[in-house]
Amino acid sequence: MEKLLDYYTVTAERDSGFWVGLPAATGKTVAREEWLRHMAQDPEHFQLVTLTAEVLTNYSTAPEDVIERAVFVTWSDEAIQ
Q1: Residue 66: count of CB within 10 angstroms of its CB
Q2: Which has fewest Cβ within 10 Å: 9, 25, 69, 80?
Q3: Residue 1: which pLDDT band, with cuts at 50, 70 and 90?
Q4: Which residues, in sequence order, are CB contacts of 26 under 8 Å at separation 6+?
Q5: What is the tens place of the pLDDT at every residue in 33-74?
Q6: Strand ranges for 4-76 from DSSP E
Q7: CA 75, 76, 81: angle at the middle one, nearest 5?
Q8: In the predicted model, what is the mean pLDDT of residues 19-41?
Q9: Which stretches within 1-81 are classed as H helix?
């Protein structure tokens, strides 16, 4: 069975790379392998955020638990156009 990722969007400043706000959930999912193919073709826009459960909760029964989210980045200078 293929792994599905929650799909988010975010706007970032081109100069600093910092996010302008928090990523917004789209309510959609995307296949991880498909997202990785998009990332290979356009890594500026298609990104993968990876966190461990322990980072989010300060507690984890399995430290190797990894939470991944697909994030599509729109750069602030693109949003203006």
Answers
A1: 11
A2: 80
A3: confident
A4: 7, 8, 9
A5: 999 999 999 999 999 998 876 655 566 556 567 789 999 999
A6: 4-12, 24-31, 46-52, 66-75
A7: 100
A8: 95
A9: 32-41, 53-57, 76-80
